[in-house]
Every structure is written in structure tokens, then in C-alpha cells.
Design brief:
Elements (H helix, E strand, L loop, with lengths): L4 E2 L5 H10 L5 H11 L14 H10 E2 L4 E7 L5 E6 L5 E8 L4 E4 L3 E2 L17 E2 L2 H19 L5 E4 L9 H12 L11 E5 L3 H9 L5 E5 L5 H7 L8 H15 L3 E6 L8 H11 L4 E6 L14 H13 L3 E5 L25
Helix pairs in contact: 1-2, 4-5, 6-8, 9-10
């Protein structure tokens, strides 16, 4: 039996060609495109302005590979973590992060991760595959619905800081963002979206060349190769000097400042020379620094540095005119905080 095609993998023009090939008017493409993206139809039966015979024909040829939230956990601080079941039975996690002024969706871009950052729970998982654009989009829609249902507030921001490295799934991530920002999709402003990378210099330059409108964050954690090499193997091929060059190129092209995400660990990057290196790195382009609380994983080598060390970082950065904030983690009690997404609910072992 021939496998059905994923209808959401088709562009509007491809949909138009399909409908014309079966003798239907071209405007059917617009109708279906709206059902798929703006209205979030999960089945062809939902498309009530199409004839029953056309819906049945589409059902025979296509499939809508919609995600399903298998488990939803709620933290004491209001954070919600979703275990998201994909069409092939694999599971990723996404998070709703509520604060007083905003509600943020933290979404995944890959099943697992191949970069092996030693301090990150996701980095210990095997990378199984990239997420499709529609699977990324669906995570956002799920969090958007939860924001309305549980908080009676709209989703305000999206961060690609969940499972996986977004720039290693470049096309699908950009396709998803195009749908998220399109008036025919979720119509969200690009300035409310941030893509975070561990630092793929070549791909940062590609983002700049593609003139993207969203924000960029770099998961930095050290501006010294001698340290970064030992905690983030990707640095061996993308050393700090190459990252600095790529970020200068990014700023030259986009005029958008970058956010540096930075966790401080006891005995790893808590010395005066670590602080000095970060200040020097920050002087390359306009930026801000988020000093993030470490959320323990199973690796005992990593222990959060003292509050005093965090404050020393803030003081030295501010003295140099650099915006720096200590970000308190949310959702730690349900393993939903930064660096903790690892499918501990074991739903990955279930298949349908």
C-alpha cells in the first residue's frame, strides 16, 4: 500500500497544483491552507467548507501528522511541561513559562541532540531525527492554547531553547517560524521569537545572509577556549574567535544585538579570568547577558556557583556598560528548567 503524503509538507503552490490536477478550482488551496495553519485542523473532517467527497479524496491521499500532548505536568510556580507525542511515536518536550508580564513557549527542534554539552540533560540523549516544521508549529499552538485555558492570557514569546540544536535543523526551523509569523498562520511578530544556538559559526552567518527578523541567543558559558572545549565539544570546531567573527557579521547585517546565555559553575568558570574574558567578548557587538541558574542533571561535576560569584559577574559586566541579569529558573520541580529536558517520564518507550 502506498504511503500517504504529509499534506502540511506541501506549499500553497503545491496544493494549488494538486487541486487543479483533480479538477478542483485553485482557490481550494487557500481554503485548505487556512484550515491547516490558521485554524489548526487536525483532520480533514474539520474542513467543513469542502464537499464531503473532496474531504474523503484528500483523506485517501494525505495525512495530517498532528502532535499529541501525552502528558502535561504543572510546576508549583505555574510552569507547564508537555510531553509531546509525534506521529512516529517519538516524544519531545516543550514548556510554557509564565511570568508577570509575558507567557513564553520554549519549543524543541530535534528529537534528542548530537552535541553532547556535558552539563545538559538533553545533550546526553541520542539525536534520533529533526522535527518537521509542522511539529514545531504544533508545539507553539499547544502552548498557546494552554496559555488561554490556564492563564486567560495570550502567548507573548517563543524561544527555541528546548531539545536539540535549532541551527542543525535549519530549514525546518525557518519554515516553522515563517508559518508562525505569517498572517496566514499565527501572525506573531518576529521580534518576539528567539532562536538559541550553542554556536555554529557558519550557520550564524547564514542566518545573517538570509536576513532573518527574529532574535539570536548564544549558549556561551565561557569565553575561554580552554574552558569551553571541556564542557561543549562543539567549541573544538567553533572556537571563541570564530564565534566572535560570526557574531560581528550577524550584527553588521542585522543590526540586532545578541543575548548570551551563561551558567556559572563552581570550579569551572568562576574565576576572575573567566569574568574578564566574558567582558572582553561582550565588547565585540551590542549584547546582553543572561546569567542563568544551573539546574542539576545527573552529572556531579557541575555544581552551581555561589550567589557571590554571580553578583561579581553582574558587577563587572555592568561596570563595562553591558546589560546583565540573573535569570531565576522556573519549573525545576518538574525537570522543565533550562538544560533539564530529557524525557524522564519515559514516554519514549511507548509506541503505537
Amino acid at each position: 500500500m502506498e504511503q500517504k503524503r504529509d499534506i502540511r509538507a506541501l506549499t500553497r503552490d503545491q496544493l494549488k497544483e494538486y487541486f487543479e490536477s483533480i479538477g478542483e478550482p485553485a482557490f481550494r488551496a487557500t481554503q485548505v491552507f487556512e484550515w491547516l495553519w490558521k485554524k489548526g485542523a487536525k483532520s480533514f473532517e474539520d474542513m467543513t467548507n469542502l464537499s464531503l467527497s473532496l474531504r474523503e479524496k484528500m483523506q485517501q491521499e494525505f495525512v495530517i501528522n498532528h502532535i499529541r500532548v501525552d502528558e502535561m505536568q504543572r510546576s508549583n510556580d505555574g510552569t507547564i511541561k508537555n510531553a509531546v507525542r509525534l506521529y512516529d511515536g517519538k516524544v519531545v518536550e516543550s514548556v510554557l513559562i509564565p511570568t508577570e508580564k509575558r507567557i513564553t513557549a520554549c519549543v524543541s527542534s530535534q528529537v534528542g541532540c548530537s552535541l553532547d554539552c556535558h552539563f545538559c540533560a538533553t545533550g546526553q540523549l541520542k539525536r534520533m531525527r529533526n522535527l518537521n516544521a509542522d511539529e514545531i508549529y504544533d508545539q507553539v499552538v499547544a502552548v498557546m492554547n494552554e496559555a488561554e485555558n490556564f492563564f486567560d492570557r495570550p502567548l507573548t514569546n517563543i524561544v527555541f531553547m528546548g531539545m536539540g540544536e535549532p541551527l542543525m535543523n535549519y530549514k525546518n526551523v525557518l519554515d516553522a517560524i515563517e508559518k508562525i509569523t505569517s498572517p496566514e498562520g499565527l501572525n506573531m511578530a518576529p521580534r518576539r521569537i528567539t532562536v538559541s544556538t550553542v554556536g555554529l559559526a557558519k550557520m550564524i552567518k547564514k542566518l545573517a545572509d538570509d536576513e532573518v527578523k527574529f532574535n539570536l541567543a548564544l549558549s556561551l558559558h565561557s569565553a575561554r577556549d580552554v574552558v569551553r572545549d571541556t564542557i561543549m565539544p562543539i567549541n573544538l570546531k567553533n572556537p571563541v574567535a570564530d564565534l566572535a567573527e560570526a557574531l560581528k557579521y550577524w550584527y553588521q547585517k542585522t543590526k540586532k544585538r545578541v543575548t548570551y546565555e551563561y551558567v556559572v559553575w563552581k570550579g569551572v568558570n568562576d574565576q576572575p579570568e573567566d569574568i574578564a574574558a566574558l567582558v572582553k567578548f561582550c565588547n565585540h557587538i551590542p549584547c546582553k547577558v543572561n546569567l542563568i541558574e544551573y539546574n542539576p542533571t545527573d552529572d556531579e561535576r557541575f555544581v552551581k556557583a555561589s550567589e557571590e560569584i554571580y553578583n561579581q559577574y553582574v558587577n563587572e559586566l555592568e561596570k563595562a556598560g553591558i546589560v546583565a541579569k540573573i535569570r531565576r529558573s522556573r519549573g525545576k520541580d518538574i525537570d522543565a528548567a533550562c538544560g533539564q529536558l530529557a524525557n524522564k517520564n519515559e514516554l519514549t518507550t511507548v509506541s503505537e
